[in-house]
Design brief:
Elements (H helix, E strand, L loop, with lengths): L4 E5 L4 H12 L3 E6 L8 H9 L4 E4 L5 H10 L4 E4 L6 H6 L1 H21 L4 E7 L23 H19 L4 E7 L1 E3 L18 H9 L6 E4 L11 E2 L1 E3 H15 L5 E6 L5 E2 H12 L5 E4 L8 E2 L4 H7 L7 H14 L6
Parallel strand pairs: 1-2, 1-4, 2-3, 4-5, 5-6, 6-11, 7-10, 8-13, 9-14
Antiparallel strand pairs: 9-12
Helix pairs in contact: 1-2, 1-8, 3-5, 5-6, 7-11, 9-11
This protein binds nicotinamide-adenine-dinucleotide and uridine-5'-diphosphate-4-deoxy-4-fluoro-alpha-D-galactose.
The site of nicotinamide-adenine-dinucleotide has 27 residues, from helix 1, helix 5 and strand 5.
């Protein structure tokens, strides 16, 4: 089987846009569907600037069956990478229905049309959040997935199950569930990167906004965890490595594997204070911080076992957190108001 054209839902978003670039650089053609609820149309021009190719784009909601059917009728593709979804943990606690409706609705419509049009390969953006509160680290793919700690995470658990059930009923379907750890960084050109709305919830964009003077200081959520310096440990992966992981996964799907599950992380845990130090090393900019009480729902330590992805995908993260900090800061400095 040969995969040449790929439907990328959510392809103007943070991870989707980098993946579209990697697809183009690796000889694939990408067709993007995005409703632009959390990204800008100008991303397309930036992808063209980087690759020389303007990807085909449809502004549509993936949950809108009529609109998505038109895309399936017009375009031919052999695989889908499904990034489209809402992803803010806090917002999902406040607006659970919106999260279930958007994330489940879009996935169900997409899978239904894939069956109808006989598109037999899907890569799904899952998350380390499906492991809930880890009993031990590093997390391996066979660790239990029961309940996530918030509605956003629950949508990922449910969509994983929906895809697993579909695989049982539809034997020709190949599914890759990719559990991302903490994606950070930006395209080294400074043209593309993470562009959160409002006050960033995540560590890296918050540090970047402190660095350019948009925020006064970083608030470190707790320094009393059972970790060497007391602050939370996560597995931060450069978005370029993550994007490469999707290309490697498409190659895996060409082997017709049925259902496969991979952690995409670096295998290395980094604490909040180590991230601050990495950022200062990468940029020369000092990040003032205060120590605050722990954030509700946070775990002490969370990082990936990467052996399975390394062995089966022949893929391994190349960049470290200093690289990612440099690229994220470059993007932030060149786009002080985000992507306009
Ligand atoms: P993002 O918000 O930058 O990208 C998601 C894109 O999907 C956006 O462009 C948005 O406009 C689009 N979208 C949302 N709902 C849609 C719908 N119904 N129809 C069409 N388009 C829709 O987010 P990201 O960081 O690039 O994340 C991509 C995927 O990876 C998401 O599914 C997310 O849950 C998952 N993920 C992200 C992280 C992370 O920390 N960034 C971690 C684990 C998993
Ligand atoms: N942190 C701070 N101050 C901040 C922001 C974060 O100290 O202003 C700390 C957190 O307490 C945590 C670490 O930095 O120890 C990382 O926090 P993030 O919010 O950047 O990332 P999380 O690991 O909490 O969550 C992320 C995604 C989720 C996803 C999860 C697991 O936001 O969507 O990784 O993949 F589910």
């Amino acid at each position: 089987m040969n995969i040449k054209r790929v439907l990328v839902t959510g392809g103007t978003g943070f991870i989707g846009s980098e993946t579209v670039i990697k697809l183009i650089e690796n000889g694939y053609e990408a067709v993007i569907v995005d409703n632009l609820s959390n990204s800008k149309k100008s991303v397309l021009g930036r992808i063209e600037k980087i690759t020389g190719v303007l990807p085909t784009f449809y502004q549509a909601d993936v949950a809108d069956e009529k609109a998505l059917r038109e895309v399936f009728e017009k375009e031919k593709f052999e695989a889908v990478i499904h990034f489209a979804g809402l992803k803010a943990v806090g917002e999902s606690v406040e607006k659970p229905i919106m999260y279930y409706q958007n994330n489940l609705g879009s996935s169900l419509t997409l899978i239904k049309l894939m069956k109808e049009f006989n598109v037999r390969n899907i890569v799904f953006s899952s998350s380390a959040t499906v492991y809930g509160v880890p009993e031990r680290v590093p997390l391996v793919e066979t660790d239990p997935v029961t309940h996530a700690t918030n509605p956003y995470g629950e949508t990922k658990v449910m969509i994983e199950h929906i895809l697993m059930d579909t695989c049982v009923a539809w034997k020709e379907l190949n599914v890759a569930l990719l559990r991302y750890f903490n994606p950070i960084g930006a395209h080294p050109s400074g043209l593309l990167g993470e562009d959160p709305n409002g006050i960033p919830n995540n560590l890296m964009p918050y540090i970047c906004q402190v660095a350019v003077g948009k925020r006064d200081h970083l608030r470190v959520w707790g320094n009393n965890y059972p970790t060497p310096d007391g602050t939370g440990i996560r597995d931060y992966i450069h978005v370029l490595d993550l994007a490469d992981g999707h290309v490697a996964t498409l190659r895996k799907l060409e082997e017709d594997p049925g259902l496969v599950i991979y952690n995409l992380g670096t295998g290395k845990g980094t604490s909040v204070l180590e991230m601050v130090a990495a950022f200062e090393k990468a940029t020369g900019v000092k990040i003032p911080y205060t120590i605050e009480p722990p954030r509700a729902g946070d775990v002490a330590s969370n990082f990936a076992a990467t052996d399975k992805a390394e062995k089966e995908l022949h893929w391994k993260a190349k960049y470290d957190v200093v690289d990612a900090c440099r690229d994220a800061y470059n993007f932030q400095s060149k786009n002080p108001n985000g992507i306009e």
